[in-house]
Give the backbone structure.
Amino acid sequence: MKRHLAGIKGDVAACMGVPYDVRFQMVENLKEISKSKEQTKKDQEASNYSPLDDSPEFEDVQEITPRSFPPRGRGLGRGNRSGPSNFPPRSNLGMRKLGDIDNYFTPKTTPGAQPSIKSVLAGKEKKWRVDMSVARWMYDACIPINAVNSSYYQPMFNVVASYSPGYGGPNYHALRVPLLRDAKREVQLIVDSHQSYWADTSCTIMADGWTNTRHRTLINFLVYCPKGIIFIHSVDASDLVKNAINLSNLFDEIVSWVGPANIVHLVTDNAANYVAAGRIVCGKYRNISWSPCAAHCLNLIFKEIGKMDHIVKLAKRASKITVFISNHVALQAWLRTRKNWTEIVHPGPTRFATTVIALGSLKEHKHDLQALVTSKFYVESRYAKDKKAKAVVKIILDNQFWNDCHVIVHIMSPLIRLLRIVDSDEKPAWVMYMMACIEDIHAAAYWLNPAFQYDSSTLNKRLKTQSAMTDVIESKVSVGRLKLVEELRLFREREQTFGTQLAQESAKTSQQDEWWKLFGSCAPTLQKFAIRILRQTTASSGCKQN
């Protein structure tokens, strides 16, 4: 029957109506049976006669073990005869497993890899059926489409495709208990790998306080280092009196767990109790510096700006336009016919910067909105007769309103860009050092940044941060101060490796910590000090909440 379905002529006629996937499976099955028979025959010959290992013909033959396989036990090694008595001696050829050769090649699903014969013969229709099966499952389970951007998405299919056609996915219990337990172990291994990295590169403790949908006050503790951000602990502080003493004790527990010697920086919210708690911790541990979260500080700036009378009036007038447009489907449909139209951004209730972002979005649609209210479609519609609509039209046609929007957006755009930088998950937030310094450690980072140190246009700023640099050495360094001061002179005067042409050319193009690795060898004490500072972050919002 297998030969009939596989289409192998000889003993039986080939089936003409069998689907391709069944025929392929039968052919592969017959191949496995044939290989198994040959292997059994070889094993029998090996057990009845002297092993191939002892034959002079195979003295130079070595078994190749794929890297992905664990090392074999002693009882199974070549030439070892100390294994259990019920396992006869096996030759190298007998021990080799089917399919081992596949471990030396990339999966066929790897982008750019040569497609398999099976996938080529399957055709577009079968590929569509496979894709549609995945799509139906995602649609039925309401899985967001951007889930396919996960780094684990394609590897999942690679493993499934290499297993067997009859693979059955894990059930509810497996996902909920054993597999979840194994995933937790994997995460713990990642945390352990980061923990060993902290001692070499130092790290920043990030305390991110927030309130969830149940109005519980939570504090997330994270550790930042160049290798990445690791979440380590979350505390429900709803019933905790959040004064400086209690918060400092909480921070002290985290510092003790991470290791005080591994920590350079502590970043928290800018609330008065967090500020006081940070000062207490830094007073206890001399090598740790505290600073407020840069993203939180910028949000507070936007909050204060948003309270100004002129901004409040401008935001209210802009809100009338957005509400009027969003409440009328016909008007939205007309606007969507405009070339390069994008939806108008609505200000968020808790994100203070969104008020400015919404004004900028509205300003970009000035001509589209004015074209709408002066069009024949609108003038002859019932909307034009409404009293509220007339007030909105008056705002849209008011040039002073648009001028005010332009001025506010122009002034606030640099702060918006800075907020996006310091609150980004893609890059460390130490780039904020190019702006106004918040704490001495930021000023020291600015001074140690070769992009600014060797830029003649920033001379005045360097002179202002020089005293901050010496303050950091005075307060944070206890051993090797004189050596550090001497090496600071080498860096400032561009002597030895600091003065090479390559060092000067790459000062603005290289990552600062990498620059110090390459060119700071003439000043080893300063090199270690600079890398520890330049590798830290200034934001505490590394864990996003939904």
Observations:
- The longest strand covers residues 203-211.
- The chain is about 55% helix and 5% strand.
- The longest helix spans residues 20-48.
- The CA atoms of residues 228 and 311 lie 39 Å apart.
